[in-house]
Amino acid sequence: MLADHHEYDVVVTVVTPTGITVHADGHDGFLDRTKHPSWWSDTPPAAVGDRMRAVVLDAGRTPPRFSALPTDIRTARSLRHTEPLERLCPPPAPRGRLDVEWAAVEEALGTALPADYKRLVRTYGGGLFGGTLWLLEPDCPEAMYDLVAQTAERAEILAELWEAGEEKPSELGEGDVRLVPWGYVEGAGHVLYWLVRPGVEPEEWTVILNEGRGPFWEAHPVPCSRFLLDVVAGTSPSFYFTDLDGIVAPEDRTRFTPTAQILGT
To answer: How deeply is 239 buried, as exposed, middle or buried, from its count of CB atoms within 10 A (0-12, 13-18, 19+)?
Structure first.
């Protein structure tokens, strides 16, 4: 069975004015003509027998819909971690935040945000994963857990630390790079950031952790949803989550608690 957000090597079998029929993993699929790179660039038009990498946009349609656009493939790579996270750590009922004005949030931050983060906020809202990792959200009534407020606050805090002589992580020495926080580790005070590099798509940002009571940093080249999934599943390679079983009760490991419930708002 084909699965949404998963990539396949496909072979073109039919080309028509409306799109391209492909064969992938024993199944036929279809690319609308706008989902082939030739629609947007000087890439040669598709021809029967061509092989290419494509991602499933909608496995439930007949035939399933694919895309060979690099932007869709990058987005799918981040989204594919949210579904197993939702199975392992069920979202609240009612579900998270459907009222976020993302254009306004991104304008305030001065950058676009990853697709998987937006899906996490829509599905869960802000709150605590596994009794330890707090997902920041836009427009939270408590500034400590608000995405935009924390971006400004953490920039000031880090600027003061670096001015006082604390060493910057090596990743910040690569030109015009900035940090945007997305998570906070309750109790320990660790902050999780995206490493925002010019010209790098949000879906390809690195997650970088700054320990709460020291100068050390730890980088992980994965989307935030993958980092969360590994923490909840107990498979995180992070040094700061290796002893989670000794801190978090087993019944809390796969539990999500919304910010509104914790704060009573």
So the answer is: exposed
pLDDT of residue 127: 96
Reading the block at residue 198, the tokens are 């010019």
Q: Identify the burial level of 96 via C-beta atoms within 10 angstroms of its C-beta, where 0-12 means exposed, 13-18 middle and 19 or more buried.
A: buried
- Report the pLDDT value the prediction gives residue 50, as an integer from 0 to 100: 96
| Average pLDDT over all residues of the chain | 92
CA distance 179 to 209: 10
CATH number of 82-263: 3.40.1580
Letter for the amino acid at 249? A
CATH 2.40.50.140 residue ranges of the chain are: 7-74
φ, ψ (nearest 5 deg) of residue 243:
-110, 25
pTM for this entry: 0.85
Quick one: average pLDDT of 245-251?
Answer: 75
Q: What fold is seen in the domain 7-74?
A: OB fold (Dihydrolipoamide Acetyltransferase, E2P) (2.40.50)
CB 150 within 8 A of CB 181: yes
Question: What value, to the nearest 5°, has the Cα angle with vertex 211 and ends 115 and 165?
Answer: 110
Instruction: List C-alpha distances in Å: 130 to 81, 88, 167, 204, 259.
Output: 16, 11, 31, 25, 13
Q: How confident is the model at residue 21 (pLDDT cuts 50, 70, 90)?
A: very high
Q: How far is CA 8 from CA 29, 33, 51, 72, 146, in A?
A: 11, 18, 10, 13, 38
